[in-house]
Amino acid sequence: MPKANAQDSERADRRGAATRQALIDATVALVASQGWGALTTRAVAERAGLAAGLVHYHFAGLDDLRLQALAQVLDTLAAPAERAAHDLASATPGDASPFSLRALVSDYLAGLDSPEGADHTAFALEATLAARHDPQVAALVRGAIERGIDQAAAALVAAGHADSQPVARAQARLVVAVLDGLALQRFATPEADLGAALDLLATAVEHENPHTSREDT
After folding, report:
1. DSSP 80-139
2. Distance CA 107, CA 100 (A)
3. Among 150, 182, 179, 177, which Cα is nearest to 166's?
4. How large is the greatest C-alpha to C-alpha distance in the chain, in angstroms?
5. Which is nearest to 200 in space by CA: 121, 111, 105?
């Protein structure tokens, strides 16, 4: 392929990717502000500032657009826990643990205060409700929850906050459930101070380091 044609193709690919992302961003913003069922081709296109025909050019339909937006949002929300798990896996035995449940949860709640973070969380909550009636959405949400629990459990074991995988998974499931509840409260009562609840959650999980306890006895 001549160089000029290759460059044209690359530019077209970049434009296509940018258009797809603009449509996904518009979908997330619309669902976050108006609900899962409010999505229409025209509404998405208008929000993105694009022609309506591009929605069906780049996606198989509104359901496909919603699913791809959901997959991207879930990956974004899972990123902090993935980074924590990666940091722990990369640490040498003599390193101080880089994992802090308190810091992780604080970062999660702080993210809700940013427009993008609030939209992502609201979108995920809307999808969780929609999962009761949509098997494809349910599969994505279930997979994200279980992946998050697996990552958090591995981090808790590596950081010494649990001495077995079953205990760590139970703790991780509790953390995920409480975070979901705190996210709902943040939307319903944005003025509420969740700091005390956050402290209780972190203390409940981190109150004892079983590895340290055995070494000290």
Report:
1. HHHHHHHHHHHS-TTSPP---HHHHHHHHHHHTTSHHHHHHHHHHHHHHHHTTT-HHHHH
2. 11
3. 150
4. 73
5. 105
- For the chain, first and last CA: distance in Å? 71
Q: How far apart are CA 113 and CA 107, in angstroms?
A: 10
**The token pair that represents 154 in the structure block:** 């591995």
Residue 28 token pair: 């997330």
Q: 161 near 205, Cβ under 8 Å?
A: yes
Three-state SS for 170? helix
Domains and CATH numbers, the chain: 3-212 (1.10.357.10)
In the block, tokens 């700091």 appear at 195
CA 87, distance to chain mean position in Å, is 18
What does the alpha-carbon distance between residue 37 and residue 26 come to, in Å, rounded to a whole number?
Answer: 14
75-118 per-position pLDDT tens digit = 988 877 677 666 665 655 555 555 566 777 777 777 777 778 88
Per-residue confidence band for 180, with pLDDT thresholds at 50, 70 and 90: confident
C-alpha dihedral, 184 to 186 to 113 to 180, nearest 10°: -30
